[in-house]
Amino acid sequence: MSNDPLVQAAVDARLRAYAPYSRFQVGAAVEATDGRIFAGCNVENAAYPEGTCAEAGAIAAMVAQGGRHIRRVVVCGGGDAACTPCGGCRQKIREFASPGTPVTMVSAGGAVLQVRTLADLLPDSFGPDSLT
Ligand code: THU
Questions:
Q1: What is the pTM of this model?
Q2: From the CA of 102, how far away is ligand 1's center (Å)?
Q3: Name one GO molecular function term (predicted).
Q4: Are strands 27-32 and 37-41 parallel, antiparallel or unpaired?
Q5: The domain spanning residue 88 has which CATH number?
């Protein structure tokens, strides 16, 4: 049990992951700049490429509730190693975050394993400003 509600949201979401194929459960939580927390988990599919990542679920939940800016991200994986966001999820986070936005990786129990900025994870990124 973490005393950080964002970590706890990611830990709780991981427990609800639907990952019968990989057996690799992931939870993610984003904190919007207005303080609201949105969580997601990976949702796999028998048609494997149709599965979705935990981060994508959390971001979709935020956007559906009107959130547009991410202040913090937490990703919760099950193994001993930090579950860092996949490349596609780094880009999805980029859409709604800033280079300095912290991305924290935690264990299944909520222990902090790594903290990186989005810019560390996705340097020289292409984002909304790149189109102007
Ligand atoms: N997964 C995530 O949910 N987030 C990531 O950033 C890495 C990978 C999921 C996708 C798939 O359901 C399982 O982990 C194994 O790749």
A1: 0.97
A2: 19
A3: cytidine deaminase activity
A4: antiparallel
A5: 3.40.140.10
